[in-house]
Design brief:
Layout lengths: L2 H6 L7 H16 L7 H5 L10 H20 L2 H17 L8 H20 L3 H9 L4 H12 L6 H10 L7
Helix pairs in contact: 2-4, 2-9, 4-8, 5-6, 8-9
C-alpha cells in the first residue's frame, strides 16, 4: 500500500512499464486478497536485454517491488514504527478473533511513509500517476496473463479506478 515509497526508490525508471510493475502487487491486493503473483516463476523470468518486451519491463518492476518489500519488512525501522502504533490502535479497535493488528499497523506505517513523501515532494504523486496513465488496465492484465499464465480479471477495473482516483493534489 506504499505506492509512492516504492516509486521513490526509482523515480527515473528505465521504462514507464517498470513503474507499472512496481505498482502491480499493491494494486492486486486491492483487487482481491486471493490474487497472488507466482514469485518463484517471476524470479526465473528470462528477458532479452537487447530488445526488452513490455512483459520484461513489468517483471523487472515486480521484482524490484519484491526486493524493496523484503528489505523494508525486515528492517528495524518497520518493526519499531509498527510497535509504536500498536498501543494507539488497541485503544480504538477492540481485540476480537478477527482483529489483525499486525496487518493494520503494517498498512498504517506504509501509508504514513507515502504521506511523508508527499509532504517532502509535492510532485511525486503526479509523476507516478503520469507513468501509470500511459497504459490501460486491460493491457496490463493481458501482459500479466502472458507473464504468469494466470488470469487476473479483477485487476483491470481496479487499476482503472486507481488511475481515476489519484492522491489529492495530483491533477
Amino acid at each position: 500500500m506504499n505506492f509512492l515509497s516504492h516509486y521513490s526508490l526509482d523515480p527515473n525508471p528505465p521504462h514507464d512499464l517498470f513503474t507499472v510493475g512496481v505498482a502491480i502487487p499493491d494494486i492486486l491486493s486491492v483487487a482481491g486478497r486471493h490474487l497472488r503473483l507466482p514469485w518463484h516463476a517471476l524470479r526465473k523470468w528470462k528477458n532479452d536485454p537487447l530488445s526488452p518486451t513490455p512483459q520484461d519491463w513489468i517483471v523487472s518492476g515486480l521484482l524490484r517491488h519484491e526486493q524493496a518489500d523484503k528489505w523494508f519488512h525486515q528492517s528495524e525501522f518497520f518493526d519499531s514504527e509498527r510497535k509504536l502504533i500498536l498501543p494507539f490502535l488497541q485503544q480504538i479497535i477492540p481485540q476480537n478473533p478477527n482483529t489483525r493488528y499486525f496487518f493494520i499497523t503494517h498498512i498504517a506505517v506504509e501509508l504514513w511513509l507515502d504521506r511523508v513523501l508527499l509532504m517532502e515532494n509535492a510532485t511525486i504523486a503526479h509523476q507516478f500517476y503520469q507513468r501509470l496513465q500511459l497504459y490501460s488496465g486491460e493491457d496490463i492484465k493481458d501482459w500479466l496473463a502472458t507473464i504468469t499464465g494466470k488470469e487476473y480479471s479483477p485487476f483491470s477495473p481496479t487499476f482503472d479506478r486507481f488511475i481515476q482516483h489519484t492522491y489529492p493534489g495530483t491533477h
